[in-house]
């Protein structure tokens, strides 16, 4: 499950008994050697799907972690790319691994400037400054009741006509081992959070596509679902992976947070 460069079981246990922020600070130096990092196949598929929707000038990687998604934006945005995360440790790793400049200014023709900002996705420190917002693998850290505020925040930092995009994988079927593994993981996390403080919010089964689409629409987006063909289809014909593309309509203003 982990490479030799990844965290030990003891390090994972310490992380799991920490807050989300401190846990990721601890995990950051070895995060890219864990299964928690979004696979390159997903990143490449999303980049391919978003390319025809451009051009984009300024992009934001929401909950950027060590910057894997920021690399996707760097290939799509012409002027600037910003990664935002509330873990200082993850941002430190992202800065070190970045191949571009750290200042938010163009580095040269066709090369976007890159900036790293520490901030909470539920209270983003930006105005309507972006044409494209992406996020990879972060939504398990938000409870369902937090989605309206989160999506309203994203709506507010997009320019009119801007897009918010993220991949979603089809949930495993009840007959599969993955279904029971994820169910068991979520159950363990709920017990842990009931008996231990601070809480560590990470639930794989709480981010349900139907609710997500409803909340995006309520936040003022028009929403499109696009199959990611690289991952094929399930037995019933539905895609194994989709890209959610939520667009802020031209001239739209964000509704008040619920």
Automatic annotation (TrEMBL):
Family matches, as Pfam families: Methyltransf_25
Transmembrane regions listed in the UniProt entry: none
Show the CDD domains listed in the entry.
AdoMet_MTases
Query: What segment(s) does the record annotate as region Disordered?
Result: 235-258
Methyltransferase domain segment(s): 60-162
Q: Name one GO biological process term.
A: methylation
Q: Which InterPro entries does this UniProt record tie to the protein?
A: Methyltransf_25 (IPR041698), SAM-dependent_MTases_sf (IPR029063)
Q: Does the keyword Methyltransferase apply?
A: yes
Any one GO MF term held by the record is:
methyltransferase activity
Q: Which UniProt keywords apply?
A: Methyltransferase, S-adenosyl-L-methionine, Transferase
What is the official name of this protein in its record? SAM-dependent methyltransferase
What is the organism field in this record?
Streptomyces griseochromogenes
For this protein's source organism, the top of the classification is:
Bacteria, Bacillati, Actinomycetota, Actinomycetes, Kitasatosporales
């Amino acid at each position: 499950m982990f490479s030799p460069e990844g965290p030990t079981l003891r390090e994972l246990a310490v992380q799991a008994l920490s807050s989300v922020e401190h846990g990721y600070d601890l995990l950051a130096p070895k995060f890219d050697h864990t299964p928690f990092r979004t696979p390159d196949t997903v990143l490449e598929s999303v980049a391919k799907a978003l390319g025809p929707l451009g051009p984009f000038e300024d992009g934001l990687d929401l909950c950027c972690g060590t910057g894997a998604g920021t690399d996707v934006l760097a290939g799509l945005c012409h002027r600037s790319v910003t990664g935002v995360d509330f873990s200082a440790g993850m941002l430190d790793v992202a800065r070190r691994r970045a191949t571009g400049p750290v200042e938010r200014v163009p580095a040269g023709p066709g090369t976007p400037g890159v900036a790293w900002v520490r901030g909470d996705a539920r209270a983003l420190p930006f105005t309507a400054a972006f044409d494209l917002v992406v996020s990879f693998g972060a939504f398990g850290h938000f409870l369902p009741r937090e989605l309206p505020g989160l999506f309203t925040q994203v709506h507010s930092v997009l320019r009119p006509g801007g897009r918010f995009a993220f991949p979603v994988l089809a949930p495993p079927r009840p007959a599969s081992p993955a279904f029971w593994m994820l169910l068991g993981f979520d159950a363990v996390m709920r017990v842990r959070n009931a008996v231990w403080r601070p809480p560590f919010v990470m639930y794989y089964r709480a981010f349900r596509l139907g609710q997500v689409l409803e909340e995006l629409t309520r936040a003022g987006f028009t929403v499109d679902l696009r199959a990611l063909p690289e991952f094929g289809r399930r037995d019933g014909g539905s895609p194994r992976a989709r890209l959610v593309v939520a667009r802020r309509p031209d001239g739209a203003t964000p509704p008040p947070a619920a």
